[in-house]
Amino acid sequence: MLKLAGCLCILLASSGMAYSCVFRLRLELYQIETLLELLTAVEGEITYSRCPLPELLEHLAEHMPKPYDEILMQSSRRMEENTQADIPALWSDVCGQYCAQLVIPKEAYEILLRAGEIFAYSSLEASLKLLRLSQRKLELVFEGRNAEFASRRKLYCCLCYMAGLFSIIILL
């Protein structure tokens, strides 16, 4: 009876591990997609509202989910406190503070960091070109990760369940 309870616990643990791995993959896709939405929203705000940068970031933060809303609000506050700050450096510093909450690949994180350069340009045309380039790169990253999702999900589930089954065999 005790071995049966142990086998059941091992099976539940391997199921939980598989769920955790798949959840992380879905969270990664969600955060990449949200970053793409953020870049699209930035493009719209830069093009049409033309309000000061701290106000623009506060307005965008109201419509973004975590952790992007926190990044935008923190950046806005720091820009208001220090108007002479180097915007790309300030943006990189704020993004670095929230790096642990971001579950995005390195390529997407680099695109997020480049958003600080978009804010630094005084020319609207240069900002929009850099923003559109960043959007295209991020779309490619998203499409690649989305294409890998099914195979990685299957791999993680198989590995977790196989490890659980081997553990059960060893227990018996």
Describe the structure.
The protein is mostly helical. The chain contains 6 helices and no strands. The protein has helices at residues 2-49, 53-61, 68-81, 87-97, 106-120, 124-171. Helix 1 packs antiparallel against helix 6 (124-171) and helix 5 runs antiparallel to helix 6. The mean pLDDT is 88.
Write down the overall geometry.
elongated
**Annotation, overall tally of beta strands:** 0
> By helix and strand content, what is the structural category?
mainly alpha
Q: If you average the pLDDT, what whole number results?
A: 88
Order of helices and strands: HHHHHH
Strand % is under 5%
Low-confidence stretches: none
Radius of gyration, whole Å: 21 Å
* Helix-residue proportion: over 70%
Largest β-sheet summary: none
Question: What is the number of helices?
Answer: 6
The separation of the N and C termini measures 12 Å
Summarize the structure.
The protein has helices at 2-49, 53-61, 68-81, 87-97, 106-120, 124-171. With 172 residues, the chain is mostly helical.
Helix-strand layout with pairing:
Layout: H1 2-49, H2 53-61, H3 68-81, H4 87-97, H5 106-120, H6 124-171
Helix pairs in contact: 1-6, 2-3, 3-4, 4-5, 5-6
